[in-house]
Amino acid sequence: TAHYVAERLADAHVTVSRLAHGVPVGGELDYLDDGTLSAALKARREF
User: Fold this and answer.
1) What are residue 45's DSSP bridge partners?
2) Is 28 exposed, middle or buried (0-12, 13-18, 19+ CB in 10 A)?
3) Domains of the chain, residue spans
4) What is the pTM of this model?
5) b/e string for 5-24 if b means 16 or more Cβ within 10 A?
6) Are 45 and 15 in contact, with CB atoms under 8 Å apart?
């Protein structure tokens, strides 16, 4: 899915990034604590 989104937006001049550690696949952001979400956003990588 991430590859598909990055390819579709390649000409739109936007940055697609992927969250780093701490967010489980299929996990819901509503259930993450602030520290985990903050760490995942700070360590995200450009796709």
Assistant:
1) 18
2) exposed
3) 2-46
4) 0.45
5) ebeeeeeeeeeeeeeeebbe
6) no
Listed as own residue / partner, the contacts of 31-40 with beta carbons closer than 8 Å and 24 or more positions apart are none
Token pair of 22, please? 């701490």
> Counting every residue, how long is the chain?
47
Positive/negative CA dihedral, 30, 12, 2, 38 = negative
Q: Give 7's contacts (C-beta < 8 A, 6+ positions apart).
A: none
3-state DSSP assignment of residue 9: coil
Instruction: Report the phi/psi class of residue 42: left, alpha or beta, with left for phi > 0 and alpha for psi in -120 to 50.
Output: alpha
Q: For 1-47, how does the pLDDT look when each residue is reduced to its tens digit (9 = 90+)?
A: 778 888 898 899 888 787 666 667 777 777 778 888 888 788 777 76
